[in-house]
Specification:
The complex is a heterotrimer of chains A (about 325), B (about 325) and C (about 500). With about 325 residues, chain A is mainly alpha-helical. Helix content of chain A is about 75%, strand content about 0%. In chain B, a hairpin with a 2-residue loop joins strand 1 and strand 2. In chain B, helix 3 packs across helix 12, helix 3 packs across helix 13 and helix 4 packs across helix 11. The termini of chain B are close together. Chain C is built from 18 helices and 22 strands. The chains are: A mainly alpha (about 325), B mainly alpha (about 325), C alpha/beta (about 500). At the A-B interface, helix 7, helix 13 and helix 15 of A face helix 6 and helix 14 of B.
Chain lengths: ~325, ~325, ~500
């Protein structure tokens, strides 16, 4: 039991069960498979990015620009669609713009050698600004009916939302890459000691550029999914998403200093946040409260391992 | 290494900070000239009066941000903290309590001090990277505004005129806001240039290990820096509410980026260790000029955010490149 | 004169994987210069840092004027009247000389606690003049060269008017004239009753200046003697612990064809005009003082930093090496000087460290636990790494075993040329001997080996040929049978008349 408790994933699982028990006691609508499955759309867009953000944070980096990148890609998609090139080519363009945004991050981090936090803080402002410049105060609406299937439809023959299927598929693929391939191993190693990795001949810069580019691509994908779900494009979409994504990753047991973490933990943390959010909305707790809760979760998730370390350190001494 | 080559390096490097401020001034003048050619009414006393007033609040808050960045950190909670302090003071008036405006200012400052101290404790004692800790408190403080105000505004008719006068009045013909900004400028000029603690802020940012070895309580300095930043944005929050005669849940969203832009324009290195109040003042002024210019020339006002992003990116890149060059120079001297 | 001002009793200090100090004794009297000597990694700097509160001791006690004291931080020690000059630069590059000198204890005037800039500049000017340095106290530190910075560090220590002054290699970047000036100041301080600890690797300085000498070896206390009563030879024997032949068994290996040739390598500000060859089975030693450009040269050959000019030829073919990856592909491996920061990923286990450079040789780039374990166990056995198994974290290994894991990582890449940068720095004598034996065996297998070392006995003992670098250039070359400590040292410090024999 004590050994199990050391595993963060196990604690997350217990917390998740706890939230389920609490919420189903508080609201009769909570423990309903269909409702629960439908509620996943509120975190799957973030989850799509979180699977790659986990790589970025494990490698000791950070991407604060993802939500802004989503807004920028979505804005380009909206304008492209309005100009009449059709929805699917526009969606493809959205992915490409997101990817370009990520590539740009990766290049300034590796070429200009800026810390990822600082570089993506700047593009956080820049990409959001571009979204505003492109769209101003207007919203783009009138997307065709078939586009909605992506964000609002269900996997053929089931009650499972398409978004959830996409998210799970990505989580499995990225989990496999992280834990079973040499690329994943390199990411852990870079997060633990980047210098030693350079001295060991790992292509550190190339790996970083790949990570940020893929993160951008997924931001583009998340933008497509979000647009398809809410059916309109505004420059202020996805506000504060980066906060929630980073929170989920850190809550999932990924060390903010890099080098540690697992995909299962990140997925569980996403479920945990999703279930809490869903439960709170059933209880009519205002959305702003959720912002506070997520901010607190982020801080506690970072503080908790330290506290546990200090605690177990003391126990070790007395034992 | 020959003597002449060294002297040359010396020449360029000692002038670096002076050059930064001069070039900033020249750039500002160029912007003013350009905008005036496009729309002459830009260069009117009335317009500049409002530019100065706009820049005052950014300038005060940026002094705090500068100190944080000088120690190698960053405070992203400036906007939310400002809005929360302002909102809480606004709510007091809404509740019908006739608080003396100066007490209100003090109260706002104290609330900010509390919020800033939380950041300080999280960063120093919790060892959370500053950008993450303040990202967290940014959303917590913002969420608290909504919770405290229930999403409602506090508007002009709910505030006593004496309070609105706080930011809009004049002392000896000088607008109060400018007066207050000037006062803080002097206080922090003295603090950073002539007090032991102020100099230790530079030391902590310049070389943390060396500062420890020199016997400086680096944790204390870091906590002070975040707390003082809180104090400053708390005061700014009250001034903001007074100036615009309204407190809104989304007041000052993105304001932290204005402060970061102001300080990088003002020549503060994101790597820590350098920064002057004068530069920051100029940086804040330039931001207000650009913002105002966007209005006057009827450019899409949303350019502001993109311009901030570009400015930050260019400034930190230049900073990094310059620093690396200096770095190699030092190595060269070490070897030869 | 005989009053004991400072006493250290039974001092022990452990760092992860290293016992830095083991039951060390030291005492210091007022008005004496006490030299602390030992090889690299003997624990001199650690002892100094414990005395100044930078590190906290694990065991033992410190007595100041007979009273037991505890220093939890540098401020405590400073208040107790202890000042120090550290080996690492502890300056604030963006701040002025005055401010650096007075950091932490500025002069303040009047009730406002305003900093007295004028007074600080004046006092600094005075201190600098005492050291015969002509610098404006308002100059910022990043304008100064290394020697000037070193002198400012000394002025800083003097500004405290301390009773005890600790100096860690204060002359390492000074010219002979500057060093002489410093010695005059040190002697004057001694005559004023200040107690001085002087750490230096230049034994001639130690004998010129000190009253007593204490020797440390591998973190252990060896002994203390009055300088007059001991000879240089004896001090060296204390430092090394045994005679050279025992330490460095050298195998005779037939030297084969040319593996690597570099021509006229240069990198601005680091090194220039570097040309040499390495043959199969040959061990090429590279000696020189710290900062002579040896590590910089090795890093450039390995592709970590770019070369400004010069050619690298491998097996008779001109080769461009732009990254460590290129170097590995061409069979070059580089064991860095700093094994904890550059050699290992401490938080990963032995097998993950061993395979880190051969990850792209795994089939389909998938991790294969069995294969990894197989490779790792092979090297654990070959290098006799003392460990509980291949899943032990690198962090928890001793220094010597950590170094063996770095070696295992490079051997797994099956290199033709192995560059070793201070391979035995800070590891214990037995591990040292094991590493030396291993280097010999690798040469026997036909590898070309370049070994950079600051320990002269090591370079002389192990190499077939020795290059000596001085200020970025090759100052001399010695064949094995010509090499002497004196000859190499002369060339390393750039004394004219060194035999720069072409071989």
């Amino acid at each position: 039991m004590r050994k199990l408790l050391r595993h963060w994933e196990f604690i997350l699982l217990i917390l998740l069960v706890g939230v389920f028990i609490l919420m189903s006691n508080l609201s009769p609508y909570f423990l309903n498979l269909r409702n629960l499955l439908d509620s996943t759309v509120h975190f799957t867009e973030k989850g799509v990015i979180a699977v790659c953000m986990a790589f970025i944070i494990i490698s000791g980096n950070m991407d604060l620009s993802v939500a802004s990148n989503m807004a920028m890609s979505a804005a380009v998609m909206g304008i492209a669609f309005r100009s009449g090139i059709g929805i699917w080519p526009s969606a493809l363009l959205c992915l490409l713009v997101g990817m370009a945004g990520g590539l740009f991050n990766g290049l300034i981090i590796t070429r200009v050698k800026l810390p990822a936090m600082v570089a993506t803080l700047a593009t956080f402002s820049l990409y959001r600004g571009i979204a505003y410049v492109l769209l101003g105060n207007q919203a783009i609406t009138g997307y065709p009916y078939e586009f909605a299937t992506l964000g609002q439809g269900y996997f053929p023959g089931t009650n499972i939302p398409n978004q959830f299927v996409i998210f799970i598929a990505l989580a499995v693929i990225f989990g496999f890459i992280l834990h079973k391939t040499t690329f994943g191993r390199s990411v852990y190693a870079i997060g633990n000691n980047e210098d030693a990795c350079r001295y060991s001949g790992l292509p550190v810069d190339r790996i970083k550029v790949i990570l940020f580019t893929v993160n951008g691509l997924l931001a583009g994908l998340a933008a497509v999914l979000l647009t398809s779900r809410i059916y309109s494009t505004r420059p202020n979409i996805a506000l504060n998403y980066e906060l929630e994504i980073i929170t989920a990753v850190v809550l999932g047991g990924v060390s903010i200093k890099g080098g540690r973490g697992s995909m299962i933990g990140v997925v569980l943390a996403l479920f945990l946040i999703g279930a809490s959010r869903f439960g709170m909305s059933l209880l009519n707790i205002p959305g702003q409260m959720m912002t506070v809760v997520i901010g607190l979760m982020l801080i506690i998730a970072i503080l908790l391992p330290q506290l546990l370390d200090r605690l177990s350190g003391k126990q070790g001494k007395t034992a | 290494m020959s003597r002449t080559a060294r002297d040359k390096t010396k020449f360029t490097l000692t002038n670096l900070s002076v050059r930064r401020e001069t070039s900033l001034l020249l750039f500002t003048l160029a912007v003013i000239l350009g905008v005036t050619l496009h729309s002459p009414r830009f260069l009117s006393w009335g317009n500049f009066h409002s530019i100065f007033l706009d820049s005052a609040i950014v300038a005060i808050a940026s002094i705090g941000q500068m100190m944080v960045v000088m120690t190698g950190g960053i405070d992203l909670s400036v906007g939310s903290g400002l809005a929360l302090s302002g909102m809480l003071v606004g709510l007091i008036y809404k509740a019908g309590i006739a608080l003396n405006p100066y007490l209100a200012l003090l109260l706002g400052g104290l609330i900010g001090l509390g919020l800033g101290s939380i950041n300080g404790v999280l960063v120093v004692n919790g060892k959370i990277p500053p950008i993450i800790a303040t990202l967290g408190t940014m959303s917590i403080y913002r969420g608290l505004i909504f919770l405290a105000s229930d999403g409602q505004w506090v508007s002009a008719h709910e505030m006593p005129s004496s309070f609105i006068h706080l930011a809009r009045g004049t002392i000896l013909g000088i607008p109060n806001l400018l007066f207050i900004a000037g006062l803080f400028y002097l206080i922090f000029y003295f603090f950073l240039s002539h007090s032991k603690t102020g100099r230790e802020v530079y030391a902590v940012g310049g070389n943390l290990e060396a500062a420890k070895v020199a016997g400086i309580n680096t944790d204390k300095i870091n906590r002070i820096v975040y707390s003082v930043t809180g104090l400053l944005y708390g005061l700014c929050g009250v001034l903001w509410v007074s100036r615009f005669a309204s407190a809104q849940p989304d007041t000052a969203t993105g304001f932290e980026f204005s402060t970061v832009t102001a300080i990088v324009l003002g020549g503060v290195s994101v790597a820590g260790g350098t920064g002057q109040v004068t530069g920051v003042l100029l940086g804040a002024l330039l931001i207000s000029i650009i913002e105002n210019a966007l209005n006057v020339t009827q450019t899409n006002p949303f350019w502001k955010l993109a311009i901030q992003g570009i400015v930050i990116l260019v400034a930190v890149s230049m900073d990094g490149i310059v620093r690396r060059r200096q770095g190699t120079k030092v190595v060269r001297e070490e070897q030869l | 004169m005989s009053r004991k001002l400072l006493e250290l009793r039974g001092i022990s200090k452990r760092f992860p994987g290293v016992v830095a100090l083991d039951n060390v004794e030291f005492d210091l009297k007022a008005g004496e210069i006490h030299a602390l000597v030992g090889e690299n990694g003997a624990g001199k700097s650690t002892l100094l840092k414990i005395t100044t509160g930078v590190h906290q001791l694990d065991e033992g006690s410190i007595f100041l004027g007979g009273e037991p004291v505890t220093f939890n931080n540098p401020l405590d020690a400073k208040k107790a009247g202890i000042a120090a000059i550290y080996q690492e630069h502890t300056c604030f590059p963006q701040l002025s000389i005055s401010e650096n000198v007075f950091m932490g204890h500025p002069l303040v005037s009047n009730r406002l606690q305003r900093i007295d800039w004028k007074g600080m500049h004046q006092r600094t000017k005075q201190l600098l003049q005492e050291l015969e340095i002509n610098l404006d106290p308002k100059t910022t530190m990043n304008m100064l060269n290394v020697a000037e910075r070193q002198l400012v560090e000394i002025a800083k220590a003097l500004s405290l008017d301390s009773k005890i002054l600790l100096m860690d290699e204060p002359t390492s970047s000074l010219t002979i004239q500057e060093a002489e000036r410093l010695f005059a100041v040190i002697r004057r301080l001694r005559d004023d009753g200040v107690a001085i600890v002087f750490i230096s690797h230049r034994l001639d300085e130690v004998f010129e200046l000190s009253d007593r000498i204490t020797v440390l070896r591998d973190g252990k206390y060896i002994g203390t003697k009055d300088t007059k009563e001991i000879t240089t030879q004896e001090v060296i024997r204390w430092m090394v612990g045994r005679s050279m032949d025992e330490l460095y068994p050298k195998k005779d290996v037939p030297i084969g064809g040319e593996l690597l040739e570099v021509k006229n390598l240069a990198r601005h500000g680091e090194f220039r005009e570097i040309s040499f060859t390495v043959r199969e089975g040959e061990i090429l030693g590279i000696a020189g003082l710290v900062g002579a450009g040896r590590t910089e040269m090795a890093r450039a050959i390995f592709g970590i930093t770019p070369l400004d000019q010069g050619e690298i030829w491998l097996n008779g073919e001109r080769t461009k090496i732009k990254s460590p990856r290129d170097a590995l592909r061409h069979g070059i491996a580089y064991l860095p000087e700093d094994r904890q920061d550059h050699g290992l990923v401490l938080a990963m286990d032995i097998s993950q460290n061993t395979t880190i450079s051969i990850l792209d040789r795994f089939k389909y780039r998938l991790l294969n636990k069995d294969q990894e374990t197989e490779i790792t166990e092979k090297y654990i056995e070959l290098l006799s790494i003392r460990t509980s198994g291949c899943t032990q974290l690198a962090r928890n290994l001793s220094g010597g075993n950590q170094q063996k894991v770095v070696l295992a990582k490079w051997m797994a890449t099956e290199p033709r040329i192995l560059i070793l940068d201070e391979p035995t720095k800070g590891i214990d004598v037995q591990a040292k001997a094991a590493v030396h034996t291993l280097i010999g065996e690798l040469a026997e297998q036909g590898l070309g080996i370049i070994i950079i070392s600051s320990e002269l006995p090591e370079v002389i003992g192990i190499s077939d040929r020795i290059l000596v670098m001085h200020e970025g250039r090759i100052a001399a070359e010695f064949k094995r049978d010509q090499a002497t400590q004196e000859g190499i040292l002369q060339a390393a410090i750039g004394r004219s008349g060194a035999e720069a024999d072409a071989v």
